Amino acid sequence: MKLKIEKAERLKRLPPYLFREIDRQKEEVRAKGVDLIDLGVGDPDLPTPGHIIEAANRAASDPANHQYPSYSGMRDFNAAVAGWYQRRFGVELDPGTEVVTLIGSKEGIAHIPLAFIDPGDIALVASPGYPVYHIGTQFAGGEPYFMDLLKENGFLPDLESIPPGVASKAKMMFINYPNNPTSAVANKDFFESVVAFATEYNIIVCHDAAYSEMTYDGYEPPSFLEVDGAKSIGIEFHSLSKTYNMTGWRIGFAVGCADVISGLGQVKSNIDSGAFQAVQIAGITALEGDQTCVEEMRQTYQERRDILVAGLRSAGLSVEKPSATFYLWVEVPQGYTSAGFAGLLLTEAGIVTTPGNGFGAAGEGYIRMALTVDRDRIREAVKRIEGIGA
Ligand SMILES: Cc1ncc(COP(=O)(O)O)c(C=O)c1O
User: Fold this and answer.
1) 178 CA to centre of ligand 1 in angstroms
2) Sequence-distant (≥ 6) Cβ neighbours of residue 110 within 8 angstroms
């Protein structure tokens, strides 16, 4: 019997699910027995390093870790985060007031609008972008204003093009570098302009740095918090998911402006009870232990990146070689839409990719490929793409 109760407006107002058609095609191709190469999902195929798993195993056996954790994080985890920020970026953080542990950074990104956005308030979000920024905003009753990320601007938002009337009503801004899905990176000059803009208009900046360690050719992305004044108006979201192949463990954190962290903490204390302590202890081992595993992860993706970029270019496709993230943002050939080209790769080559418009209207004209299969499968993908003569 069908439920006679309507879903809440916030669910009914969600944008249409743009991957429906590609999902349908994927099932159809799979049902024909085609050996699919899935470059669609941004989930590392590499395992969590052994020393982190061992730490979790030991901690999981300790009854002290079986009770409710603190919603804001264990003191030792928050201190490990502060230590990592100091070593990695030279940024000082007070673990007591400027760090909060998250059940994955997605959790914090989805919840932060509940702390600061009232119905009618605006949040500035990127298009294309990670969808949780605008959906979290809408769930809180706010209105997203989309800042287009365009190739001619290096896929950075053009802050000057935001109408002053919009900027004055905006309460939050989400930015994300290294970027998903465009793989663009930002330097400190850009962060300085964001701080100046946000200070002028009184806007909280949420910088999502989930991919800051997934980098190539020795590139080291800066933290937003390295810029003068950033800690007075902004926070940075971070995650162990991509750095240590821990997507399934659900552990991340937010750091920065104490008042913003406290707002997020207040929401969390009413909604969740913190990450499992054994997972936090594993996280401490990850942040404080030997970082060789991170370098190995970078080498693995760099090799895949080089094979795929060379292969796509020799097939005549236009793609930048990214200096961070495990995504390639590939321009679709003339005459195709994002969905049309993703459909062609799926039906003619058995390759799953993500149409760029699924990340926002400004992603039209691109597809995203994730480097989440091994190099032999990447070589196979290249052969198939060359075979269809795209
Ligand atoms: C840009 C970006 N931010 C945040 C996340 C969420 O990561 P997690 O919740 O695993 O920390 C993702 C996941 O793919 C992402 O791409």
Assistant:
1) 12
2) 132, 135, 136, 139
